[in-house]
Amino acid sequence: MVKQFENPVAYTFLGPFFVIYLLFTVYPVFQGLYMSFFEWDLLSPQHTFVGLRNYMAMFFNDQSFWRSMINTLQFVLISSPIIIGTGLLLALGLSRSKGAILRTMFFSSYVLSVAVVTLIWGFMLNPQQGLLGAAMQLFGLEPLAWLTNPRLAMYGIVLATLWWTVGFNMVLFIAGLQDIDGYLYEAATLDGAGPWRKFVSITLPGLKNTINLVTILQVIASFQIFGQVYIMTRGGPGGTTRVLIQYIYETGFRDFRLGYSSAMSILLFILMFGASLLQLKISQRGDK
Fold it and tell me: pTM of the full predicted structure?
């Protein structure tokens, strides 16, 4: 019997993927790391080696960087629990076969592009013409200027992101729920367990791996927030929603400082990688 790793057919099918992966994923990471040690002007063919100067400037001399970082962390901390929790609640309510149409409806928003999503929610959050403003007026309330109020703009972006991405998490949780043995619930019912006890003792332990996966994917996606912010608020009002990727984009392609933007990109990569490792470490500790 030929072992799988000795099968040349497997390498024939895997080869093109690995070539594309190395060219468009692995190589850009090392290229960005290399560029971060240079004063790399997009318009000039000559680049000056500056060592750690970009990193030192980023940490000690750039207030805009820190403000963008704080806004990014704020979005991650607000959006991730809401999107994960809502996805779990939808999965619990729609995991049965009768919820097939509703599952399709909730997931359908995920296939839309970010431009379409921001167009829809930019209109809905408009205080004069938007649906939410009209609903508030029906109850005699003053419509909220979500995207122009510094205290509400980030929550408006979170709301749009929730509507856009929660369907994906819902599908993952539904898949996890289907892997839980139904006999466990029947046995718990015979023992007199209520819905809450079943959820705590059967559902949550059975979804542990799925929760870890969804958490890691959601945190990484939240760190990469860009399109919604750039189209809906352009980082405003007053820079209260400008996130790190927007600042990296503006520094690299508006100010032509590719070396400095690469340094910030490497830091963002380290943050996402560290967050993923932390989540895996916490989950492994729970297994002991």
Answer: 0.86
